[in-house]
Amino acid sequence: MDSATLGGTSLGELDLQLLHALHLDGRAPFSRIAEVLGVSDRTAARRFARLRAAGAARVTAVLDSRGSGHAEWLVRLRVPPPAAADLARELARRPDTAWVTVLSSGTEIVFIVRAPAGRAAPLAGLARHPRILGVEAHRLLRHLMEHRWPGRTSALTGEQVAALRPAPGGVAAPIALNDLDRRLLPVLAADGRAAYPRLAGRVGWSESAVRRRLEELRRSGALRFDVEVDPVLLGFPAQCLIWLAVAPSRLASTARALAADPQAAFVGAVTGPHNLLVIAVCRDEDALYAYLSDRLGSLDGVERVETAPITSYAKRVAPPT
């Protein structure tokens, strides 16, 4: 794909390379990215500023729930179609929600909500909401992909990837959030590339303290940076939630296989009648059909499949809590 457009924004090869570079390290200095891509610092910074201003892409910080002592719950709401958009926006405003989506013909909303580990999902009031017809909550046990949507990251060569990939962090272990974290993380969730002087000014701590704490969170694996890009912009308008019921003996192998698929934007283990959740992104409905019938249909151990197309997003990533 040489280019793509959305709302007047055109993605050229350099834009795709830049997004791939940021996918590898969301806080990599533009000077390092520019050197690897063979362009000037100013060009790299200007191209990303253009994409961000157009709402086409942004870097955001995501706190590992296990590292913060929180649990994630996948919640499904049945709603009357006229209420879906307003309810989705209402849920998106909550600081503990992530990835608020409207499915199918607007009859269902799916979102992730975070809560302290050991506590039930914070859903008080939803069951009694006059515009909510039904509520299901299932624990999101584990994210089973190292990076979201590997299919989008194909613009760089192997040599360029090696030059930009940061040193691996540790395995996320529970880490107590302090006052600095509670001030810092929402700012980074809104702009993962915010410069240290700006971060220091926003949180009221010294620049050196902010730098040390951010490096500590990254080194521990508790904090990672991701690039939000609408798949439509990259030429993948067919997006679908897929719930899979997989035989327990095949769960790990099936998850590994799916996590390597270029069509998979997310793979996670969940509780409930289905034990795997997949977000698939495809170029069109024919490609989605082929993925469902040929790819999923060929996997041993898959006992049941439920699908629902994603029609809109009200929120993609929540500020860490």
Short description:
This protein has a domain at 231-310: Alpha-Beta Plaits.
Topology:
Layout: E1 4-6, E2 9-11, H1 13-24, H2 30-37, H3 41-53, E3 57-63, E4 70-78, H4 84-92, E5 97-103, E6 108-116, E7 134-143, H5 158-164, H6 179-190, H7 196-203, H8 207-220, E8 223-229, E9 238-246, H9 251-259, E10 264-270, E11 276-282, H10 285-295, E12 302-315
Antiparallel strand pairs: 1-2, 3-8, 4-6, 4-7, 5-6, 5-12, 7-10, 9-11, 9-12, 10-11
Helix pairs in contact: 1-3, 2-3, 7-8
Could you characterize the architecture of this molecule?
The chain contains 10 helices and 12 strands. It has a domain at 231-310: Alpha-Beta Plaits (2-Layer Sandwich). It is globular, with a radius of gyration of 20 Å. α1 (13-24) crosses α3. The relative contact order is 0.18. It has 321 residues and is an alpha+beta fold.
